[in-house]
Amino acid sequence: MIDLTVKIAGVTLGNPVMPASGCFEILPEQERVLDPAILGAIVNKTIFLKARAGNPPPRIRETPGGMLNSIGIPGEGVEAFIEHKLGALSALGPPLIISIAGNSVEEFCRIARIIEDTGKAELLELNLSCPNLNDGLHWAARKETLFEVVSAVTEAVSLPVAAKLSPAVTDIVEMAATARKAGAAALSLVNTFKGLVIDIEKKRPLLGNITGGLSGPAIRPLALYCVYEVYRSVDIPIIGMGGIASWRDAVEFMLAGATAVAVGMYNFVNPLVMAEVVEGIDRYLAANSFSSVKEIIGLAHRI
Ligand code: SIN
């Protein structure tokens, strides 16, 4: 028996595989392709305090090796989320990582407290890096704003906090170190890269919101590089993400230093991908004579 458990900020996950926020819908039981109970953690689509409509269509465009999205984080608001979804998510079994965002520092703190009071979340993921909102990216774009929001939330709640950072910065290590100094207990690396597609017939940007966030295998080496660099100098666990499409990709992220991995865009291509990643990691560990998945975290730095 190989030990697949990992620990993120004191939370034990049965295995290191989870969905990236917004990339996995929990369907009614009879419609499920993948059993959510096999996941290391469940992550919701980022919620705000109030209901939001999201961005105008078109919202998605397939690109070479990836997907450009400008969804704009539509949602029902935190109270309706708690009323309609949280109970069902919590009943699935794996620990819940609740992704939140706010329009101000005060709003981030308010949502964090509301979620903490439900007693159902194990970890809060602060979405500080959505490139599709007017103000979505700026939290993680400057050290000052990043420090302000992360320290305010970590003071407001006792739940551990993971900061989801943007790759669109000059120095990702500096931003990761800032989040850690502000009290983040973990890092989610990385959110999407801002991109553009132009409709040459209409001669205008294709997406309703003009720009979008690029995800999928096209960004994998870029995201992997961020994880590798941050692991070297920031000593809090990393949830690695960015184009993971197979167990091999997940193993790469873990060897680079990720304690856990999140699968995003590829869930839309292969709804079974997360189960395949869990099984593939297990087989890889057995074939390489490891007894625990923890043994491979950051191993690429030691050789
Ligand atoms: C979106 O809903 O626009 C994507 C969320 C994100 O990139 O954080």
Tally of extended strands?
16
Number of domains: 1
Main beta sheet strand tally, sense and closure: 8 strands, parallel
Q: CATH fold name, please?
A: TIM Barrel
Helix vs. strand class: alpha/beta
Indicate the CATH class.
Alpha Beta
Just name the CATH architecture: Alpha-Beta Barrel
Unreliable parts: none
Work out the helix count: 9
Spatial gap, N to C terminus: 26 Å
Task: Indicate the radius of gyration in whole angstroms.
Answer: 18 Å
Neighbour order of strands in the largest sheet: 3-16-15-10-9-8-7-4
What is the CATH superfamily classification?
A: Aldolase class I
Ligand set: succinic acid
SSE layout and pairings?
Layout: E1 6-8, E2 11-13, E3 17-19, E4 42-43, E5 60-63, E6 66-69, H1 78-91, E7 96-100, H2 105-118, E8 123-127, H3 138-141, H4 143-156, E9 161-164, H5 172-181, E10 186-189, E11 193-196, E12 198-199, E13 204-205, E14 211-215, H6 220-233, E15 238-241, H7 247-256, E16 260-263, H8 266-269, H9 273-287
Succinic acid binds at residues 22, 46, 69, 71-73, 127, 130, 132, 191-192, 213.
Task: Walk me through the structure.
This protein is α/β, with parallel strands linked by helices and 303 residues long. The chain has a single domain, classed as Alpha-Beta Barrel (TIM Barrel). It has helices at 78-91, 105-118, 138-141, 143-156, 172-181, 220-233, 247-256, 266-269, 273-287, and strands at 6-8, 11-13, 17-19, 42-43, 60-63, 66-69, 96-100, 123-127, 161-164, 186-189, 193-196, 198-199, 204-205, 211-215, 238-241, 260-263. It has an 8-stranded parallel sheet. It starts with 5 loop residues before the first strand and ends in a 16-residue tail after the last helix. The site of succinic acid (SIN) has 12 residues, from loops. Succinic acid binds at residues 22, 46, 69, 71-73, 127, 130, 132, 191-192, 213.
